[in-house]
Amino acid sequence: MVSTLPVSLEDIRAAARRITGRVLATPMVQSASLGELAGVPVHLKLEHHQTTGSFKLRGATNAVLSLSPAERSRGVVAASTGNHGRALAYAAKAEGAVATICMSRLVPENKVSEIRRLGADVRIVGSSQDEAQQEVDRLVREEGLVMVPPFDHPDVVAGQGTLGLEIIDTVPETAIVLVPLSGGGLAAGVAAAVKGISSTTKVIGLTMEKGAAMKASLDAGRPVQVEEVPSLADSLGGGIGLDNRVTFAMCRDLLDEIILLTEAEIAAGMRHAYACERQVVEGAGAVGIAALLAGKIVGNGPIVAILSGQNVDMEQHLRVINGTQPLYREEGL
């Protein structure tokens, strides 16, 4: 099944060879507290230790390196909720290219400022990633920039899939992989890698309860738009694109389940990561821990939870840890 999909195991292995030396092979640690809770070994893949603070550097680096020198000289552009923009700015700078990053007003300032620090041209457009994408389309059409999408691109998915190779290489007996789910680049890549090697391993996508575009699209049987709402897991916001060509099909065919998490559960995951695992993670990076704490994962073998990012506003993080952060609800507070 995997070989018929837009990104194959061999594509992911080629990406791993391409990005070696440019991204980190991140640590894997075992969690005694979560293992006791789950009744099986639980391992945490510390991808938030990646150079730019999230898994996104894998896909961005593979995509930039896959461009021709002429394409890189035109400059690259992408819409982002923050982490992809930071990764693309870093990867482009490393190869001598100029990056333009388009973001909505919902992207936290700590992520915007870091992208600017890396030398990218930042455009703040509208109040959704779909509106930011319209500016990307204009820049591609009118100024000739080369688009490197945050998720719906084979080279990006293949790059993210290298994380799955590391998981199975480190814990070959993995029974379940818990992966944050937004546009599906990470989930699709990890699932293709993991199931390409270990077909019996389950891959479960985790996302926030409100504004979960991939879950809504899979339920509808086609890509659909959803309203973007504030969330502690802001990196999981945004649509999947109505003309999605890669990640919708891969998530449909490869994910075993999708689990939704409330804001309170995400906050609990962030607190546990800090208090018990000594890890600072953003809301999106805490969803694996959150699902385990909420009793939403039942496994009969080792579980690996991907801690996908740490690019959180530290003032907000402290409020979450101290229990003073207002939780986002339908009314926005």
TrEMBL record:
PROSITE patterns in alphabetical order: DEHYDRATASE_SER_THR (PS00165)
Keywords: Lyase, Pyridoxal phosphate
InterPro entries: Ectoine_EutB (IPR014333), Ser/Thr_Dehydratase (IPR050147), Ser/Thr_deHydtase_PyrdxlP-BS (IPR000634), TrpB-like_PALP (IPR001926), TrpB-like_PALP_sf (IPR036052)
Classification via Gene3D superfamilies: 3.40.50.1100
Protein name as catalogued: Hydroxyectoine utilization dehydratase EutB
Entry superkingdom: Bacteria
Gene responsible for this protein: eutB
EC number, as in UniProt: 4.3.1.19
